[in-house]
What does this fold into?
Amino acid sequence: MGGPFAVRKDERGDLFSRIGAFLAQQGLSPDPAHYSFAYDVIANPAGVIAQAVDRLTDGGVRLSRSDIEQLGGRVAIGGGGAGSVQDGSDRASRVENEAMRLVEETQAQVDGFTSIVRAMQDETRDFGRDLAESAAAIAPANRAASTTAGLDEIARITGSMLTRIRDAEVRLAHATSEADALRAKLAEANDTARRDALTGLPNRRAFDEAFTTRRERDGPFCLAVCDIDRFKRINDAHGHQIGDRVLSAVAKTLAEECAGHLVVRHGGEEFAVLLHGIPLADAAAHLDGVRSVISGKRFRLRESDKPLGQVTLSIGVTAVHDAEPIDAAFDRADRLLYTAKADGRDRVCAA
It folds into this structure.
């Protein structure tokens, strides 16, 4: 294997220095979990993991968290450097914290709502008992006292009933308001859990759910995996803030050009598109048009108005078979994506 991380006899330095270089290139700290993964890559250059790393990092691309985890590694919390692994981790952490905040607020509202309902149940139970006792007391009072005294007792009981009914109505209105707020919070939490914080696109969880439910709809399905070519160069040359702007701009264009289809940020600089009701040939032609629109854009730096350079996409697209699991379809599209990159990038590969 001739990739950038292969162990060659003529390389200077020992195994540990090469492991250190690998960790630095990937923006990973010397955490034991990171070191173990790096050792598997460097010490066995002919192995499956090392070959996969060579393919994934072709063109200077830095491994994403999902890349490392899919290869059996683990990214330690807070253990990344300035690279895409840490950037993705930070954004994911912010989303997770927001989701947790919403869950805590929702739980507090659930507890409050439960208390209101329980109090209303206790009030209703006491009300029925008191009413029965009062009704039993009226009969002997009417026999022993004047009609006026009996009517006064009825008026007193009726007034008490009305007061307690009004109190129950107020409690019920408050409980209804709490329920409405609870539904809104749950909807917000549900959306937050399924949306990418940076681009605003649906995330991988939303994609997985949509793929699972696709069988309920008629017509052909196609799955595309899109990757920004040489994205690491943009980050290295201009910083991650500019890289984030590029990601957001590409995401916006993909969503606009693929309106009516599901576009998600699948991770890092990778996007996935689930196209419904369109055969493979038409899907490939449509995505080639999207690719052309993005490559034709002239990105410029907002601060200096200097040109950023051409931004291109490589795309792999495949038809989804009936009852096919998501992993099988995605792996096939992912292989087609890397074929597109191997063939020169800025192109669509379909099969």
